[in-house]
Amino acid sequence: MKNIFIIGAGLSTPCLIEYLTERSEEYNWKVTVGDISKEMVEKRLQDCPNGKAIAFDVFNDKQRAKYIREADLVISMLPARMHYLVAKACIRYKKDMVTASYVSNEVKEFHQQAKENGTILLNEIGLDPGIDHMSAMKVINELKESGAKLSAFRSSTGGLVAPKYDNNPWNYKFTWNPRNVVVAGQGGAQFISHGAYKYIPYHKVFTRSQRMHINGYGEFENYPNRDSLKYRTIYGLEDIPTIYRGTIRRPGFSKTWQTLVEIGATDDSFIVENSENMTYRDFINTFLRYEEELTVEQKFAKYVGLEDDSIFMYRLRWLGLFEDKKIELKNATPAQIMQKLLETKWKLDEDDKDMIVMQHRFDYELNGEQKILESSMAVEGQDSICTAMAITVGYPVAIASKLILTGEITSTGVKLPTTKDIYEPILKELESFGIKFTEKEIEE
Amino acid sequence: MKNIFIIGAGLSTPCLIEYLTERSEEYNWKVTVGDISKEMVEKRLQDCPNGKAIAFDVFNDKQRAKYIREADLVISMLPARMHYLVAKACIRYKKDMVTASYVSNEVKEFHQQAKENGTILLNEIGLDPGIDHMSAMKVINELKESGAKLSAFRSSTGGLVAPKYDNNPWNYKFTWNPRNVVVAGQGGAQFISHGAYKYIPYHKVFTRSQRMHINGYGEFENYPNRDSLKYRTIYGLEDIPTIYRGTIRRPGFSKTWQTLVEIGATDDSFIVENSENMTYRDFINTFLRYEEELTVEQKFAKYVGLEDDSIFMYRLRWLGLFEDKKIELKNATPAQIMQKLLETKWKLDEDDKDMIVMQHRFDYELNGEQKILESSMAVEGQDSICTAMAITVGYPVAIASKLILTGEITSTGVKLPTTKDIYEPILKELESFGIKFTEKEIEE
Description:
With 444 residues, chain A is of the alpha/beta class.
């Protein structure tokens, strides 16, 4: 019997927990799930009779040591900054570990020790990072093996509302952490285009979006992510002339959001004086000029260069930004005020389902010909628990864990799923859960 | 005999040192000037036979204690963050102190002790802060005494090149710290307009400039300063519906500079990869889209919404921003790259003279009538030592020091020059040095 210890029972864990508990008899596993809230674990385990719920505090040294020592494999679904504690204990007690988060520099330091232990610390095996690495590396390696020379790699991912429930003028609802959406892009963006570095300051990020098409789902756009450069090393594309990573939204989102960035309404660096007694209309007016003869709407449209009757202004009006409704939020930053408003307007309704879309584009030369390959994926959520996010984060983690326990993944050290021995069996099994990439040659 | 101890012999001190040493026999003063560089002091004292030069390190506890204990009045012309050490010693040894810098919260804490000592720590008695406080408070108090009700106070200051030497298309040269000019506005701006708070993010600051006129000097513009709000309390204008502080430039400066802010060329938050081998043209191109069919100039103009043959593009071309000249600066931020270029292009030539301009505008109601009063000042530099900056910073400090030593200023505690007993005699004597405000009623 092997012991699996899952730490964290948050929103991205239901499919993971279900997958492992469902197979626990077949594989002779004992699955223990710990969370600071035992109630949360019990909720997750309601339909999973073979799991054991415990209250677990990762900062409790004794408890951390006890449960990790007893486990054969530890899955950390905690917030990224807490993985280090878990990794350290896994090294100490020579246990395998799996996480869906970006690997930190501190965890990277354990590489040699994990190798010596004969264990694996597998990181970045969720959706993004995770499925993006695996699906991109599969194509990159296939192209390289065929003798192709890559000239450009572009990759974008987005969490959106599924088409059937896409019924607001932004074609967007929050499917994950709202704050991250409100402050998205605040570090600016960096990528490489045709051999030249490109630096985009925050206030220009949403002006740099590009259109894209995903078969069966129609038109989208993507705006540049903070750092595309590090993927050169991770993917072995050190000399590629173009590398770009983006976030996917429906068309028009970026241009509309840009107006809020431009006036300063997403700023998170200062407190708006008297915010609790302001209305949203007052709030917007704080960023605009004093012009007695114009309405706030007219001043806004003029300031950001929009027509007052444009679809963009319609979307902003629809949010209630120009309404005389009190904000009722004390000592709030502009970003916090926007978040409060958006959480009511971009709320995923009870019966709404989310959707994950991902697309890679590879430009390459093969036998003297320039070609473009697109590899796309779309996954819709099943219900409010098995969301597309929970599916696409949970299954890769679950499958990887199984493959480690069964000995099908034998790599050791601190790893990402960028090598064939890891991504090939995982991608294959993911297809049985509807997580499948479609490849297509396209014309420029 | 009274001992005056001046700490710091930098660019803003020559007029100050000259004023006090010239009067040292008449008033029976001994003037000691200390600087980390004794050479610098000796240079300043060349034509001032009555001053004594010493090498002085403010961080040397023993030396600090010795010289401050021996002094009757200490003038700190050190960088602002070092005043605290001097103030602390002045409190301990019960000495008067004068500085031209913004008073820090730490120094404010000495108020009660200074009162008990019967000494004054007079701060913000240079140009800006300094002359701005005094000249504004004079008018504000006169208006209040006449029964006027102030509805708006706007105040702007600028350091520029004197008209005779104003011969570049930006109508601007560096007359002070270049770095401060390159990163100006990076905290955004806050002011109050017609009863409403206004928050301007950095990338909009230079779009919010306003035109102004100064008699005898022609047209200018001013862009909003970081924080106008604190002047409400300082000037006793707590309920004023409009309060604004700006920085003065010649017309067109802001709109042109804005294009550099907009593309991200003044960013100081990241290092440009391979900056030493880049040309300025490459540098500008890192912020622009890849568009094969357009030149860098054309892409720039399109990106920021300018005509390629406009005066704005002419100013940018004149800087050499589009030239294939190597930057030769390692691991530099965009702001550092811009600074290096601008230091060659906006350099004040040997024979050039600088200029300080300041203007306050007061909107008020008196006897049922709406009126506007403008109070303006312009001072040109005399030579490369007695610059307008040295004149306008040095004389207020010098005169205030004299008035404290002669007992004409009797206030005690931590003070700003916002009360009549301080500003009246200083403003009066400043006129004899050509620092004079002209008041004028204007129409809206």
